[in-house]
Design a protein that fits this description.
Length: 188
């Protein structure tokens, strides 16, 4: 079966490649921190991103969508550049920008779910929900590491993400079950 929504197919391709960029970035991030616990936590997150890539590919295969060569190339380069730059920009910024990126990724998966629903497809609900929630956990992990740092309010003002602002409306303390998760990410 082919997907009749070209926008959704493109979102899947982009997510597939962006997960690779994230995985590469976390390799550099994990290598750049000296604290053992931080290294282990970031490696786990890298592992989660490789898993997401597999899950997205499984959905793509279902609809005969092949990865985009351009996205694969572009995100490969982006991931490697971020990975390398983690060694140069100090401790705070890799945490900050990882959290900010994760914050934006949360809604990607909930929006995909909504687009599938528009086509009457609900069979990917569970996996898309799990991935969206996992990205939220990643966001909170990174935020937790920097929330008491003096630089955060300054960065938050410039880049619109931090203790007060997020790019999604998911609250893990009062999260919706899968059946109601279509309520997430309606804005923007
Ligand atoms: Fe991910
Ligand atoms: Fe993530």
């Amino acid at each position: 079966m082919k997907l009749s929504n070209a926008n959704l197919a493109d979102l899947l391709r982009k997510a597939y490649s962006a997960e690779k960029a994230a995985s590469f970035a976390y390799q550099g991030h994990a290598a750049s921190v000296s604290d053992h616990e931080e290294k282990v936590a970031i490696r786990q997150i890298e592992h989660d991103e490789w898993n997401h890539r597999e899950e997205v590919l499984a959905i793509m295969n279902r609809y005969e969508i092949s990865p985009s060569k351009w996205y694969e190339f572009r995100f490969h380069i982006i991931g490697k550049i971020i990975s390398f730059s983690c060694h140069l920009i100090g401790w705070f910024m890799p945490y900050y920008f990882a959290g900010r990126l994760e914050s934006g990724n949360v809604c990607e998966y909930f929006r995909m779910m909504q687009l599938f629903h528009e086509l009457g497809i609900t069979e990917h609900n569970e996996v898309l929900y799990e991935m969206g929630i996992k990205e939220k956990e990643h966001e909170l992990y990174f935020l937790g590491k920097i929330k008491n740092k003096k630089l955060l309010p300054f960065f938050e003002k410039i880049f619109f993400w931090g203790s007060e602002q997020s790019f999604n409306d998911v609250n893990l303390e009062e999260k919706y079950p899968i059946e109601e998760s279509r309520k997430y990410c309606k804005k923007g």
